[in-house]
């Protein structure tokens, strides 16, 4: 074929294809079929869609060498739509297209690329973008391999592939179109295939597929657009050609203007309003109360998660809910939503209402706000920085701790500059601390920041003693969980801390960190295990249980256990006595996601020293999310259990005490003391404090929201947004009988996940919309029975309740001048069975011997 012939239609082809009987610059006519569809990600039918059918005439206005000016006429465009039946045929629908005159536009091609498009700016922008789509599929370069091009999709990396002399295609990747904004969670595939016959372009087929969100999570959607040009048998008459390019351009219609080929964003792209009706003031107040969920048995529900999503969607109206006449539940819910929003204006409104810089700040509401700010998905730098400043100004130690932890967690999700500034501030504050409690709080805040450069500082404090050492190890644990690895230089200091002479719980935490961090390359672990033979049995017990858990997850540790020296392979080496335990039990699995419950209990003399239970979620990308953490520490309880009061490391007896530490999404919350001293403990026992279910944790956490906007082939603008939120609640109760020398504790963890996704493909001739929702409401209950009448016996039972994974996708279309509507909806509900988790044969035997209640 002649290169000039293809310049007319799709750009020049390589010389290897140059055999054709078509005269240069011959006019042609093509039938146009431009189709746009929206659907659920996993479905192949029952979509909503529309077509624009037309005729495109391609006429040469001027040509010279490898340059070409084409006159293009878009004739008889008609909108077509399907009826309510999914298999109905497409029928013409009255629309904007019917009122448009013959669509004449021009394009200047050079070496197969469109150098300028000449469009009428008075036409609707979507019509202009439709014409840009037609020009984009007609441009083609004489290259093989990767090149960069700009077309209706923006700047793209284009791969050219040749199948035969009559068939070739181009594949577009990484397209970025200026002015259209973000493209979060969008996976796009774009390709154009060309078919030739006897040197003529007979057909081209351009196809775009955009996958929106996570299909496996139930809220995934997809948009598809394709454009087909099929050559008609009869060609239009050839017009007279201009003598030069300048003459041809001078003769263009006066209304046409040179325009870029990239799609231009429509005005409605900036609209930020939801497609559902805005809630009334009464509905917003009720949603704030539901989101708070403060009473026992409430919170951690789908009702709370839905309410929080509603509040975040109406964040601009939240300050109006903060007034002295509002009840505590409304205030708590509104402040939590402002904290989750994390904007500079949101933070100013909350701080002004709470009067945080005054002495009469409402402490409970302030703690609720800071706990929510720590979960903000994209906090503004100003909010994080001001929270850290507040921590320096507040006189109340508990409020100072909440502010510092929240500011650090927010800075970790803000800009890199804000995170670096927070790290410098916390390092200075830590250096200025005069007592252990101050150091504990600063180290916990560094853990919330989760920056790798803090590892060396944390290790220095982990080598010390007291509460600061435990906080430093917890911070390193948070760093390992968030990043999946610790700097290699951490392994040797952790080994020294694990094998040293510190407190049992600190050594256990260091040992656990060492085993997990070294698991990908566990070459030095046999040396550690050999050194542990002289360590307390509780440490050896924890080490082997962690290694077995790691071996179930990774081949390096499995291989290590098979290659251990003989002295480490025996039953006496791998099954030491003691009551400490480490268990990992899978709660659920599906679509590449996993949920697991991890329990690490460090005991001394059969009495708990430090216990931690974590709900972990592992993504398909093998990233671990520390969803909820509950940690309990005790001291000096040996005398109450009928034994000697144990010391921290074999030294003086300790004062009785206990505390609770909570974390959500890897962000640690302020520590809650339970009692200090034996007298306070006995007072709680005699009065029955905590014998009824008591709220311990109420948390709301946004999850990976996404927004996207991009042009579709065929002129429509695609918008996508997704919001997801997790609501968690923990209630606990405990009873102690000093007469029977028994105790019973119950933990009820409720978690709810609500995800919403919206997509729309809007154009001047109609709109397609899709709404997807996915909801999940699991429950976990842990019962513990303790008998310390003659020795100590502990029975623990863990259960998950049956629940459903509910999904719904609703598709709608409103097309043409009459606003013709179609609605399709599909709901599914996947039942998930409840389970009793196996916690090991010794625990089961203890439960049978005690006859512990399972209700």
Automatic annotation (TrEMBL):
Entry keyword Signal: yes
SUPFAM superfamilies in the record: Lipovitellin-phosvitin complex, beta-sheet shell regions
Annotated signal sequence range: 1-18
Annotated keywords: Signal
Record has Cell inner membrane as a keyword: no
Chain ranges of the Vitellogenin domain: 104-163
One Pfam family it belongs to: Vitellogenin_N
Gene3D superfamilies per UniProt: Lipovitellin, beta-sheet shell regions, chain A, Vitellinogen, superhelical
Family annotation (PANTHER family): MICROSOMAL TRIACYLGLYCEROL TRANSFER PROTEIN, MICROSOMAL TRIGLYCERIDE TRANSFER PROTEIN, LARGE SUBUNIT
Protein name, UniProt field: Microsomal triacylglycerol transfer protein
Organism, as annotated: Bicyclus anynana
